[in-house]
């Protein structure tokens, strides 16, 4: 098979992400501007936090003036899926020094999927070309996100948009993410148990609901896994 | 806490929490170790957490009843849109616009 001599352009590869990140970032920005803070804060969040679902959740947490411990736990667990991405990339991330750390920092869902698609070209492209493509793709994707978030927050603060009810974007986002999870994990019982845990936590304390629910859920999962291990030990 | 200090601490902690989830595998784990427990959590934590966050995001209407019918109707639209088109942005924007129209025009929350 002839080698493809054409070096793929990072921009061309990242265009689909641009069409997702700019509007989603703008939605975040408009929602954030409702809190009444300067648009520069939205810019800072996009630059440093750089995580879609976490930033939407952050708007809800800031509106509730959530405790900082709750903020840390909630955002860590919301992003816990990244742990699994990392696992699958450990052996072939490549890169060294700051470029490696930047790529790890910028490893969003979308960047991850572009990078894994790129890995299929290993052997066709040289390692250096691949490395530079990886970093460029990650940086372009973050650029789209920062642009969208900042633009949305700026527009939201300039225009007097009738935004009452826009905070529904948060439950809508989690509904979508729940449906996406159901496509992967077709176990209705898990979802029903989670609903039960959430309801109990809400009854215990409305203010501390998230923290209580997360602790209950993680303990239950660890117990389920422990029980599985234990029964295996007893069988053999 | 003063708003600026709160936001600065908030962004710092959210940045650290997000970065840790992305960096921990590269910092702590070797290629060959057995990641069975981590993979178990990685598989089952996300679906559970999404449900918890969905309820968290709806805790006001769920505990007070204010805006509950509007929320449930909008969630139904999100579900229908997402099951038929499977475009996250369309589902989120569609449901949010319906909710906004309901609370601003058709059935204001009193």
Topology diagram in text:
The complex is a heterodimer of chains A (236) and B (110).
Chain A (H helix, E strand, L loop, with lengths): L9 H24 L5 H10 L3 H12 L4 H11 L2 H9 L7 H9 L3 H11 L7 H32 L10 H16 L3 H17 L4 H27 L1
Chain B lengths: L2 H26 L7 H22 L1 H6 L3 H18 L2 H19 L4
Helix pairs in contact in B: 4-5
Task: Write a structural description.
Chain A has 236 residues and is mostly helical. Helices cover 75% and strands 0% of the residues of chain A. Chain A has eleven helices and no strands. Chain A is flat and about 60 Å long. Chain B is mostly helical and 110 residues long. The model of chain B has no long low-confidence stretch (mean pLDDT 87). Chain B contains five helices and no strands. Chain B has two domains: 1-33; 43-110, no CATH class. In chain B, 83% of the residues lie in helices and 0% in strands. The interface between A and B is large, with 88 and 69 residues.
Strand content of chain B: under 5%
Low-confidence segments of chain A, ≥5 residues, pLDDT <50? none
Number of strands of chain B: 0
The averaged pLDDT of chain B comes out at: 87
The helicity of chain A comes to over 70%
Uncertain spans of chain B: none
From the alpha carbons, calculate the radius of gyration of chain B and give it in angstroms: 19 Å
* Backbone CA Rg of chain A: 21 Å
Integer count of domains of chain B: 2
Counting DSSP H or I runs of 4 or more residues, the number of helices of chain B is 5
Helix/strand class of chain B: mainly alpha
Shape of chain A: flat
**Total beta strands of chain A:** 0
Largest sheet of chain B: none
Distance between the termini of chain A: 50 Å
- Determine the number of helices of chain A (DSSP H or I, runs of at least 4 residues): 11
Name the structural class of chain A.
mainly alpha
What's the story with the biggest beta sheet of chain A?
Answer: none
Secondary structure: helix percent of chain B: over 70%
């Amino acid at each position: 098979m002839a080698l493809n001599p054409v070096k793929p352009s990072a921009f061309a590869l990242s265009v689909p992400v641009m069409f997702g990140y700019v509007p989603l970032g703008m939605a975040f920005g408009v929602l954030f501007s409702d809190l009444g803070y300067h648009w520069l804060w939205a810019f800072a969040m996009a630059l440093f936090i750089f995580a879609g679902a976490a930033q939407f959740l952050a708007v809800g947490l800031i509106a509730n003036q959530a405790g900082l411990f709750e903020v840390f736990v909630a955002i860590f667990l919301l992003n816990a899926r990244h742990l699994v991405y990392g696992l699958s990339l450990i052996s072939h991330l490549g890169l060294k020094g700051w470029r490696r750390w930047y790529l790890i920092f910028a490893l969003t869902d979308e960047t991850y999927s572009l990078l894994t698609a790129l890995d299929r070209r290993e052997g066709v492209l040289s390692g250096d070309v691949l490395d530079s493509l990886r970093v460029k793709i990650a940086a372009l994707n973050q650029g789209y996100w920062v642009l969208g978030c900042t633009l949305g927050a700026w527009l939201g603060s300039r225009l007097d948009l009738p935004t009452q009810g826009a905070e529904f974007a948060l439950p809508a986002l989690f509904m979508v993410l729940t449906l996406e999870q159901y496509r992967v994990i077709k176990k209705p019982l898990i979802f029903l148990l989670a609903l039960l845990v959430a309801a109990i936590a809400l009854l215990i304390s409305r203010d501390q609901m998230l923290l209580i629910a997360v602790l209950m859920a993680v303990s239950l999962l660890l117990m389920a896994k422990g029980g599985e291990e234990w029964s295996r030990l007893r069988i053999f | 806490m003063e708003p600026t200090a709160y936001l600065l601490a908030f962004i710092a902690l959210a940045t650290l929490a997000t970065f840790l989830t992305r960096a921990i595998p590269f910092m702590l784990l070797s290629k060959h170790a057995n990641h069975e427990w981590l993979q178990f959590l990685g598989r089952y934590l996300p679906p559970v957490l999404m449900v918890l966050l969905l309820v968290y995001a709806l805790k006001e209407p769920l505990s007070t009843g204010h805006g509950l019918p509007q929320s449930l109707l909008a969630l139904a639209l999100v579900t229908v849109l997402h099951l038929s088109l499977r475009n996250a942005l369309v589902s989120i924007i569609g449901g949010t616009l319906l909710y906004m129209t309901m609370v601003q025009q058709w059935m204001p929350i009193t």
